[in-house]
Amino acid sequence: MNIILKPQHLLSKKPNLTHFFSSKTPIPLPYGTETNDPSYKDVPKPVRDKSERKPYVTPMKMLIKRAKEEKEARKLQPCRMLENPPDNGLLVPQLVPVAYQVYEAREVLLSGVSKLVKVIPVQKCRFCHELHIGHVGHEIRTCTGPGSGMRSSTHVWRKGRVHDVVFSPKSYHLYDRVGKPRVVHDESRRVPRIPAIVELCIQAGVDLEKHPTKRRTKPVYSIEGRIVDFEQAKENDENERNLHDENLDPLMGSDLGTKFDEARNFILDKETDQLEESHEGVTDLREISIGTMESWFKMISGAKKIMEKYGVLTCGYCPEVQVGPKGHKVRMCKATKHQHRDGLHAWQEATIDDLVAPNYVWHVRDTNGLPLDNKLKRYYGKAPAVVELCVQAGAPVPDQYRSMMRLDVVPPDRDEVDLVA
């Protein structure tokens, strides 16, 4: 037998696999590592148990550390003027145009969804919050409403509305977000409740006649953790509410105030032109769906920027939301363990999903085909209700939701379920 010996440097050298794959050939990832891709989004998990608390956005150790640092700072300097907005009662100048853009995008979104709902039917379950976009409701048994056990968790469908597709929880409107940041229980009937994203835009700089708010020209002081305003108003409250535009100029300076006025007038003119076009009527359904989806992403991205500066709180056990530095004290929580809290909410930091609920629905590939089968639900994807509505109306599928909608998965036929592992 002839034995061929190889040099030692050839035995220790690892094979170079780059020669076997070209730069254009996609290399399949092993199962379970797809989540490393930042653009990959899996189907959202089922709704959490009502007894479980929402996960904290900021870890509890970090919250405790911040509280200790703030306590030490108050001891070292009991009386100090707050410098950073919006904690000092002033506006963040660079976020004022963003607030107007978010408010404008919301108006365009509601207008577009109201038109699409007339063409693309929306199904809403009578007993739970399940929503379906299509002519026929799906057959997936996920109902958790009253009497679901006797119906084998099947849904009972009815016609949906615009607020079912675009759902935004309501928040108490704060006239002075720094001087009086909390609404007590006795004031619950007197203080109006408006959509939380509208309240966020108002606190960030949007001026609405129906919902006035106080605009300061000087920062407030903090005395042992309590906010004190030494600014003496020369006019009564009614005149202050009507002079929002004049109070913004000394806040941001002459140059910034002029630029802000020009940007705000441009946005308002653009909004007026879009409303006039909507009244004239646009026949192309695809253009409406594309514009609606763009306004959805514009609203979400702008709200995220504002939430980095302006606080938004949510209850850890129920969907209640309060925009402001502190949560209200209205005893209206009916979630788990509310008896131990005397009906008060367990406030914590909110996310964008708490402010604007995406309301994920099952993706329908063939709108004229059979309804979705319960046995094939593992092959179906999901998407936010607004995205699914716009896609069925002709808008292209967004890249960030392709993996969630499982467009690369081919579901088997109904008679092939038993043959698939």
TrEMBL record:
Provide a Gene Ontology MF annotation, just one: RNA binding
Please give the superkingdom of this protein's source.
Answer: Eukaryota
InterPro entries in the record, alphabetically?
Answer: APO_dom (IPR023342)
In residue numbers, the region (Disordered) covers 31-51
A Pfam family per the record: APO_RNA-bind
Composition-biased stretches, type Basic and acidic residues, lie in: 39-51
According to the entry, every stretch annotated as the APO domain falls at: 124-210, 314-399
PANTHER family xrefs: EUKARYOTIC TRANSLATION INITIATION FACTOR SUI1
What protein name does the entry list?
Answer: APO domain-containing protein
